[in-house]
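hey m, so remember when u said the C-alpha cells were messed up on ur end? i reran from scratch. heres the input so u can diff it against urs
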Amino acid sequence: MKLVILDRDGTINADRDDYVKSSAEWLPLPGALEAIARLNQAGWHVVVATNQSGIGRGLFDMETLNAMHSKMHSLLAAVGGRVDAVFFCPHTPADACDCRKPAAGLFHRIGERYGIDLRFWESVCRFWGPSICPRVKARAWCCWSSTSPRWRLFCCPR
C-alpha cells in the first residue's frame, strides 16, 4: 500500500485567518485537486489529517464540516481523484487533546485504520507545515510505500 497524508487548509483548499467556516468558503487551491488525482492514478491512497478548531470554537458544526468535505469529494471526483479518509481534530488548543496536530493522535488513528505503524510521527515528522521546509516555504507530508518499506518526507512548495 502507498499512503500519503495531507493537511487540508492551505494545502488542498485556501486557508483563511478567520477559519474556513462553510462550504461556500471552501475553495480549492489551483492544481491541488488535480495533484491528488495524479497521486490516485499512480496508486497512492490519500488521507487528510486536519485541525478543525472552528468546531470547538463554535464557529461551525459537524453538519457544516461534512458539507465542506462533501464539496471536496465532489470536486475531486470531477477531476478523477479521491480522498480515502478525512481525520480531523475538532478541539481548540486549550483542550490539550492528543489529536490536535502536531500531536500524534490523528496519525496513530490513521495508522490503526491502514495497518501502518505511524509511531515514528512523534520523532520524525513532528513539525507540520511551512516550518519543516523553511527554505521553500512548503508544507510537508510523509508517505509510506509497501513496495519500498520506509517512510519518506516530501515537501511541496506553495
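this time it looks ok to me. The first strand starts at residue 2 and ends at 6. if urs says something different then somethings off w ur setup not the seq
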